[in-house]
Structure formats: structure tokens, C-alpha cells
Amino acid sequence: MLRVLLVDSDPDRAAEVEAGLAATGCTVVAIAAGTEELTRHVRDTGAEVIVCGLDDPSRDELEGMRALHRDEPRPVVLFTEKAEPEQIEAALAAGVSAYVVEGMAPARVRPVIEVAIRRFRAHQALREELAEARQGLEDRKLVDRAKALLMQRHRLTEPEAYKRLRRMAMDRGLRIAAMAGLVLDKN
Amino acid sequence: MPLDTDAPPRPTLRRPVLRTLRLGFVPLTDAAPLLVAQELGLFDAVGLRVALTAEPSWAALRDKLAFGALDAAHMLGPMPIALAAGLTGVKAQVTVAAGLGANGNTITISNALVQELGRLARPLGAASFAALVRRRAAQGRRPLTLAVVFPFSSHNYLLRHWLAEGGLDPDRDLRLTVVPPPMVAQRLADGAIDGFCAGEPWGSHAAALGAGRIALSTGDIWPNHPEKVLAFAADYATRDPESATACTAAVIAAARWLDEPANQAEAVNILRRRAFPRLDRAEIAAAFEGMAEGLPLDAPLRFHNATLPRREQAAWFLRQMRRWGHVPAAVSDSAALAPWRQDIWRAAAARLHEAEPPAPSPPPSSPLGDSPEHA
């Protein structure tokens, strides 16, 4: 059973969507009206996926959870009541996961949610690559600072300082950035 | 062409009404050029029928523009970059045909924070705010939460720039979150956030409610920074360049009308009727008057000189997005900035005999040259 947090400011529609989701084998763990703080709500309910209306005012907050917070973002699936079929196709092509709840066969809802989750995971992988790239930059800066310190202290040229730093790292079985951090900490 | 302030400049009629252009906006003061263009009949005058709809969120507006439910929209400056790079999973190539305004956002902080600061001298200095954040950390108190209106917004990047200027790391020393503009005043009053950076009238509204005080405006961080843009859907500008040009001409004419002091009162009426029926007139008027809490701003909301879309200004936002690790290195500058085009603006301006606006103020520089600086 997929644990779903439903975000909808319209209680009547929320009840309908909940029934639709239940019919596809999803458990709606909570319905948020969008006026409360969503980050906490998501954490507290242990939801695996968030289902939200295309026009719900909470959408920017959900985007913010994904873009600004490092704390376990969740995939967001959008539903819309009145999109034309070609618009839904275009939305899916653009990366938006939208589906029509009204009049949509329950059997089709679950696959849409699964596609959204797969896409989300792919996107998360991309984000992790980004984070790694950032870490690389951070490492380089540490190494540069440690090099500068060694150059100044031991009157070395830049390549000599780098060689010394590398040797120190190898002797201790450390990554060069970790060694740079140690050198800077000690001095 | 001399400007008659009693009647809006009317671009010449070019053809009978053919089709409806679907134009979306988020209810904010700087949507004024679109609302004014419609209310004054400037779209009619260029032979365009426009269906202007208020969108409930930036995400909804973006998705509709990306999948063809809107032809054009009022957009946050960094959004076309995020769309070109596919940053939130949605990828689309929009065309930025005009700027919709400069300045116009405030950074508003809670009364409790004002009290902790002791005295609020506007504009609040980055160093004073950073000292407050460090003092709290030293006392073991919870980090502050500041809200912006969307991750890919001038608000987010100008606020981050200001925080970093004070020596803070916005991702470590504070918590940044997103709150939709109509909710910021309430969240501030409830104590869910300690401050926010949002477009007017929401800072003035929060101050009028007594929920907080306006500490500075984004114009204090980068005077006359570009704010929202008029963006056309991916293929719209190539499929119907005539309509895109006509729409842009109407928007330029509206921006010109908006900066005439004699038109302020009517502009406030239009905004109140179309976007903020529940707000007090004075809260809406403040931005047009260039005021915040009764005191003049150094760099107030302006429209007329901000209509020419400038790629070199958008490049500052891209540099910030790189600085904070929001854009992968694989995305080239040229691809990220490709949406900014001046040809539509120039064609539209020629119809209005509109001169090129003076060169804007340069963006603020950062000590580290905006290079990516942290993990």
C-alpha cells in the first residue's frame, strides 16, 4: 500500500479524490488543507508520495520543499479536473505528472503515480550528482587553502606544496581534501 | 512622441481581433502592467483579445505555460532559466519578451526580531542581521526561518546575496522556506516564520496588520533590479509573432502609463478591483507611491524603464543559481539565458516610438565573484 498525503483546500473534492485513490490501492494517511506547515506534516505522517491539485495554492510550498530543503523531499503527483487530453499529454511530456481524477478509471491512477515516483527518483539522482559536484568544489577550496599555508610556511612552490600534501595524505591513508582539512585545523 | 498623461498612449490598430491570447498572472502589485493594459483597453487597441487569469501559484502558472494551457505569463525572472534547465523536472523553452518592473519586494521581519535588534534602522544592514543570527546561535536558540515566494525567484537570490554579504550561509545558518504571498502575513503573525521576502502589497499588508516591520526592500540590495518578466510559451512567439509583438506593445504602453504620477490613484483602483479586493487601499497604494510604512524607499517599484529585457541582467540571477548549486554545471550560460530576446521588444517599441531605456544600475558584486562557494 502506498502511503499518500493528499493536499487539497476543498474538503468535498478531497473526499472524492481520497475514494479514488483508495480504489487504486493507495492509503491516504492525511488530508492537508494547505494552510498548515507542510514540511512538518509530511514528516509526521510518513507519506511516501504527495497528491495535490494542479491549482492548489500550496503548490509553491511543495516545490520549495523539494528545492530548498535537504530533508527528504517526496514525489508530488498533480491532479486536475478539467484538462484536455492533449494538455495532459503535453504536461506529461514536459515532466508534470497530472491526471484527471474525475472520470478517470482507477486502474489508470496507480500507474501515473508510479511513473511520478520513478521520475522523482531519477531527478533525485541528478540532485545527488549536483551535491557531489558541490562537494568537489568545496574540497578543491580546502586543498587550495592548505597548499597556500604550506607554501608560506615552508617556502615551497605550488607544485611542491601539492606534492607534500599528497604525500601526507597517502602516508595517513586519507583523501587529499581530508588531509587539507587536518593541516588547516592544526594551524 | 509626447506623452499625454490624461489618456493612455494607444498603439495603432493593426488588424481586427482574431484570437484570444491566454495570459496568466499571480496577484501581486507588479502584475500591474498586464491588469492596466486590459482595463485601459490597450490590448483591444492592438487588436488582441486577452483572457487574463489569476493563477493560484507560480508552479501552476509555470506548468500551464509549459503544457500549453497559457500562451503567456507574468513570471519571476529566474523561472525561465529554471525551465530552460529543467530544474524541477519541468523543461520548456519560453521567450522573455519584456520586463514587467524593477524593485518592488520587501523583506519584512517579525516584531520579536525587531525587538531583538533593539532598533530598526531601514534599510537594515546585512552585518546587523548576521550579528543577530550569530548571537542566537551562540545562545543555543533555534535557527531563524525566512520565507521566500518561490525557490527560483529574485526574492530567493537577492535575500541569499544579502545574507551572504553579512557572512551568513543561508543553507546552514538559517532555514529558508517557501510560503505563497497571500499567506506570508498570517504565517509571520503565527510565528511559523520569522521574516519573509515577498512582492508588494504583502509586506505593507503584514505591517498594517501589526505582524511585523519592513526591514528593507530588494531595491536596497540591487537598486533597480529586474523583477518579473513577460514570457511567451515555447512556440508562441514563432507561431504568432504578430500577437506577441502586439501584446508586448500594449504592455510597454501600460508601463509608461503606470510611471506617470497622475495615474497612480487609478492604478491603485485597478489593482484593488482586479487583484486585492480584501486589502485596504493604503496597503496597495504604498508600492505605487514608492513608500514602505510611510517612509520613502530609495529604489521603489518602477515600470517604464524596466521593459527592455536584458540578458546581462538575467545573467546575475544565473550566477546566483550557480553560486548556490541550483544549476548543474552541464547547463551552459547560453542555453540558460536563451529565453531573453530583444527583437520582440524592439518591434513593439518601434510601433510606440518608444526610445531604449537608459542603462540600468549594475548588479551587486559579491566578494567571491559569485563563484560556486559551498556544498
TrEMBL record, chain A:
<dbReference type="InterPro" id="IPR011006">
    <property type="entry name" value="CheY-like_superfamily"/>
</dbReference>
<dbReference type="InterPro" id="IPR036388">
    <property type="entry name" value="WH-like_DNA-bd_sf"/>
</dbReference>
<dbReference type="InterPro" id="IPR005561">
    <property type="entry name" value="ANTAR"/>
</dbReference>
<feature type="domain" description="Response regulatory">
    <location>
        <begin position="3"/>
        <end position="117"/>
    </location>
</feature>
<dbReference type="GO" id="GO:0003723">
    <property type="term" value="F:RNA binding"/>
</dbReference>
<feature type="domain" description="ANTAR">
    <location>
        <begin position="123"/>
        <end position="184"/>
    </location>
</feature>
<dbReference type="GO" id="GO:0000160">
    <property type="term" value="P:phosphorelay signal transduction system"/>
</dbReference>
<dbReference type="InterPro" id="IPR001789">
    <property type="entry name" value="Sig_transdc_resp-reg_receiver"/>
</dbReference>
<protein>
    <submittedName>
        <fullName>Response regulator receiver and ANTAR domain protein</fullName>
    </submittedName>
</protein>
<dbReference type="Pfam" id="PF03861">
    <property type="entry name" value="ANTAR"/>
</dbReference>
<dbReference type="InterPro" id="IPR008327">
    <property type="entry name" value="Sig_transdc_resp-reg_antiterm"/>
</dbReference>
<dbReference type="Pfam" id="PF00072">
    <property type="entry name" value="Response_reg"/>
</dbReference>
From TrEMBL, chain B:
<keyword id="KW-0472">Membrane</keyword>
<keyword id="KW-1003">Cell membrane</keyword>
<dbReference type="Pfam" id="PF13379">
    <property type="entry name" value="NMT1_2"/>
</dbReference>
<dbReference type="InterPro" id="IPR044527">
    <property type="entry name" value="NrtA/CpmA_ABC-bd_dom"/>
</dbReference>
<protein>
    <submittedName>
        <fullName>Nitrate/nitrite transport system substrate-binding protein</fullName>
    </submittedName>
</protein>
<feature type="compositionally biased region" description="Pro residues">
    <location>
        <begin position="357"/>
        <end position="366"/>
    </location>
</feature>
<keyword id="KW-0997">Cell inner membrane</keyword>
<feature type="region of interest" description="Disordered">
    <location>
        <begin position="349"/>
        <end position="375"/>
    </location>
</feature>
<keyword id="KW-0813">Transport</keyword>
<dbReference type="GO" id="GO:0012505">
    <property type="term" value="C:endomembrane system"/>
</dbReference>
